[in-house]
Amino acid sequence: MSNPFEGRSPNLSGPARDLLPVTPDDAADLPRICIGLYAEVGGAIVFTSETGAVRTVSVSDFSILPVAARRVHASGTTASGLHGFVV
Asked: Which intervals of the chain are annotated as region Disordered (predicted)?
């Protein structure tokens, strides 16, 4: 099968190259900075943005949050089934 992404530079406007399962953690950053987050089950997501700001956002089921995130905090995060979009 040919790979249409082979030889192309990653692009922050998409598409994402993969999804990273996210386990909220108050002390550890994600293995890679994500260009967005996806929540299967809605609730609050407390995250540290790529710029280092801590934010809390409420999302509904099956939501995409198009923001760069370096950490998803366990404290205060009630959304579940979280995944990060990576390039």
From this structure: 1-20
